[in-house]
């Protein structure tokens, strides 16, 4: 009897460096990145703005090739985009002339399998609780709903690796909290491997099992924080507060009010 196909993948980043060519000059972006992500793990990448976090996601998605080093998914080199590795951006980037259902169906349509796989679109909308809005257009949605459509568009491809580039960065605080809970629930149900880029320390601690800290450009791995807490997590948990202070100090933010919280001993 054959074993069921695994719904996630392992990622191995080995001594990856990358640069951009700007007017004949090499602008270093990543420097000797070594990182292993276990199948089904949820990790978060934190670092200064512009340090190279988004570039690393693009390399993992296969949209670019690293200048040096190797990236493998389940032991196979990543050399091109693949529907098993999906990158979700900060902006939902929905097609305004297409309904919610047709926006979610875009990936299956591009693969030429929509006719026989239409049920996957309905399933993806049900996952993000938007089945009642299938015939709506993007201008009729709130910011949080549009972001949920973007998640459904990613999930309809049944990704084994979901790459998230600050997906909630432009949402208000209430909607952001709701979307964090939504993402956590989807990850627990779907069991995909997740890599989240965020500038929000608290968001990283609430969602990820490991938080990877990167230096300023060119980005290097400078610290790793393990979050050994059960889900769901609360913002006022003593361990979350303590880790938040530790990460802020590691990132040179120890003068901010965020680290003035009193942590019970």
Q: What is the H-and-E element order?
A: EEEHEEEHHHHEHEHEEH
- Fourth CATH level, the homologous superfamily of the largest domain: P-loop containing nucleotide triphosphate hydrolases
Radius of gyration: 19 Å
Shape: globular
Strand content: 15-25%
Largest sheet: 6 strands, mixed
CATH architecture of the largest domain: 3-Layer(aba) Sandwich
Structural class: alpha/beta
- Average pLDDT reading: 88
Total strand segments: 10
Which fold name corresponds to the CATH topology of the largest domain? Rossmann fold
Q: What are the segments in which pLDDT stays under 50 over at least 5 consecutive residues?
A: 257-265
**Main sheet: strand order:** 6-7-8-3-9-10
Q: Approximately how much helix is present in the residues?
A: 25-40%
Look at the structure and give the CATH class of the largest domain: Alpha Beta
| Number of separate helices | 8
Q: Indicate how many domains the architecture comprises.
A: 2
Give the termini separation: 53 Å
């Amino acid at each position: 009897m054959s074993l069921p196909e695994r719904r996630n993948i392992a990622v191995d980043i080995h001594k990856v460096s990358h640069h951009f060519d700007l007017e004949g000059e090499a602008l270093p972006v990543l420097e000797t990145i070594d990182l292993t992500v276990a199948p089904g793990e949820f990790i978060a990448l934190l670092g200064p703005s512009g340090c190279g976090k988004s570039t690393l996601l693009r390399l993992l998605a296969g949209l670019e090739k690293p200048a040096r080093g190797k990236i493998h998914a389940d032991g196979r080199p990543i050399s091109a985009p693949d529907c098993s590795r999906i990158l979700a951006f900060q902006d939902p980037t929905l097609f305004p002339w297409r309904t919610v259902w047709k926006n979610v169906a875009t990936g299956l349509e591009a693969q030429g399998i929509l006719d026989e796989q239409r049920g996957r679109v309905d399933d993806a909308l049900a996952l993000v609780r938007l089945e009642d809005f299938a015939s709506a257009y993007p201008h009729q949605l709130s910011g949080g709903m549009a972001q949920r459509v973007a998640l459904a568009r990613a999930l309809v491809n049944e990704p084994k690796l979901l790459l998230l580039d600050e997906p909630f960065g432009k949402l208000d605080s209430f909607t952001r909290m709701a979307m964090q809970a939504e993402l956590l629930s989807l990850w627990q149900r779907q069991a995909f491997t997740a890599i989240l880029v965020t500038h929000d320390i608290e968001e990283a601690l609430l969602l990820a099992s490991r938080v990877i800290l990167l230096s300023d450009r060119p980005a290097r791995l400078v610290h790793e924080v393990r979050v050994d807490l059960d889900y769901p997590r609360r913002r006022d948990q003593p361990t979350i507060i303590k880790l938040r202070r530790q990460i802020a100090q590691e990132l040179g933010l120890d003068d901010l009010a965020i680290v003035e919280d009193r942590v019970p001993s």
